[in-house]
Amino acid sequence: QVQLVQSGGGLVQAGGSLSVSCAASGRTFFNYIVGWFRQAPGKEREFVSRISWNTGSLDYADSVKGRFTTSKLNAENTVYLQMNSLKPEDTAVYYCAVKNKYDGRSSNDHLNYGWWGQGTQVTVSS
């Protein structure tokens, strides 16, 4: 079983930066894909980015491409989401989640992820 602990986030003005981290306890991220999703009030949970722990391959939603960066630190078994040039429409609760790399399911669909962090609020004021 994987336990995910998130930290970071907060409140920032438009154009600012924030970061969120996701640390695994109980086991490593090896053979997992770590995804970032967000959910704004009244909206469905949406894909933000994902990273394959083994290879480091990355994917981003078009809405955040060029502004957000996902990275990992092997020694700390932690994945980071660096968010730059934030916009009010980025306001949401951000979640990290993991899925097995070899299950053959889409890594962009939150329904395919089995373990979730507690969520972190990111608020961008205009």
What report would you give on this structure?
Helix content is 0%, strand content 52%. The protein is mainly β and 126 residues long. It is globular, with a radius of gyration of 14 Å.
User: Could you report the average pLDDT, rounded to the nearest whole number?
Assistant: 96
The profile of the biggest β sheet is: 7 strands, mixed
Gyration radius over CA: 14 Å
Query: What structural class do helix, strand and pairing data support?
Result: mainly beta
Q: Helix tally?
A: 0
What fraction of residues sit in β-strands? over 45%
Q: What percent of the residues sit in helical stretches (DSSP H or I)?
A: under 10%
How far apart the termini lie comes to 40 Å
List keywords for this structure.
mainly beta, single chain, four-stranded antiparallel β-sheet, 52% strand
What is shown here, in short?
With 126 residues, the protein is mainly beta.
SSE order and pairing:
Blueprint: E1 3-8, E2 10-13, E3 18-25, E4 32-39, E5 46-52, E6 58-60, E7 68-73, E8 78-83, E9 92-100, E10 115-116, E11 120-125
Parallel strand pairs: 2-11
Antiparallel strand pairs: 1-3, 3-8, 4-5, 4-9, 5-6, 7-8, 9-10, 9-11
